[in-house]
């Protein structure tokens, strides 16, 4: 699985996010590549970032940088714990604030289908 970014350490922290809990990488729908954050994608990729599509939420899209376990987008988004289910490593709870950068939201999916009301 490709992992790219800016100054990425062995647990997927990067130049932009390097706290102890910044240990996930996210797979982007545009290039099938894992990046620690959207800024890493913007710096390393030669194309615009596309969030992980809703129709692929049952496929691996999140990588735990501590143990290497992959989670589906659904597993990650529906978890009440901000931690890896395999190794227990804490994930940054603040990542939920900008989940729309990484995962297609219902509003975006409905807008693409022609429903401009949302």
TrEMBL record:
<dbReference type="GO" id="GO:0008270">
    <property type="term" value="F:zinc ion binding"/>
</dbReference>
<dbReference type="InterPro" id="IPR016694">
    <property type="entry name" value="UCP017292"/>
</dbReference>
<keyword id="KW-0479">Metal-binding</keyword>
<dbReference type="GO" id="GO:0045041">
    <property type="term" value="P:protein import into mitochondrial intermembrane space"/>
</dbReference>
<dbReference type="InterPro" id="IPR037274">
    <property type="entry name" value="Znf_CHY_sf"/>
</dbReference>
<keyword id="KW-0862">Zinc</keyword>
<dbReference type="InterPro" id="IPR052604">
    <property type="entry name" value="Mito_Tim_assembly_helper"/>
</dbReference>
<dbReference type="Pfam" id="PF05495">
    <property type="entry name" value="zf-CHY"/>
</dbReference>
<keyword id="KW-0863">Zinc-finger</keyword>
<dbReference type="InterPro" id="IPR008913">
    <property type="entry name" value="Znf_CHY"/>
</dbReference>
<protein>
    <submittedName>
        <fullName>Zinc finger CHY domain protein</fullName>
    </submittedName>
</protein>
<feature type="domain" description="CHY-type">
    <location>
        <begin position="7"/>
        <end position="89"/>
    </location>
</feature>
């Amino acid at each position: 699985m490709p992992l790219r970014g800016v100054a990425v350490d062995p647990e997927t922290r990067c130049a932009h996010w390097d706290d102890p809990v910044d240990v996930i990488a996210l797979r982007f729908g545009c290039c099938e590549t894992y990046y620690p954050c959207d800024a890493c994608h913007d710096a390393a990729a030669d194309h615009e970032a596309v969030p992980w599509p809703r129709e692929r939420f049952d496929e691996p899209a999140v990588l735990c940088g501590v143990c290497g376990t992959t989670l589906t987008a659904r597993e990650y988004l529906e978890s009440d714990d901000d931690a890896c289910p395999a190794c227990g490593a804490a994930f940054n709870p603040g990542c939920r604030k900008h989940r729309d950068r990484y995962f297609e939201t219902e509003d975006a999916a409905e807008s693409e289908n022609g429903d401009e009301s949302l």
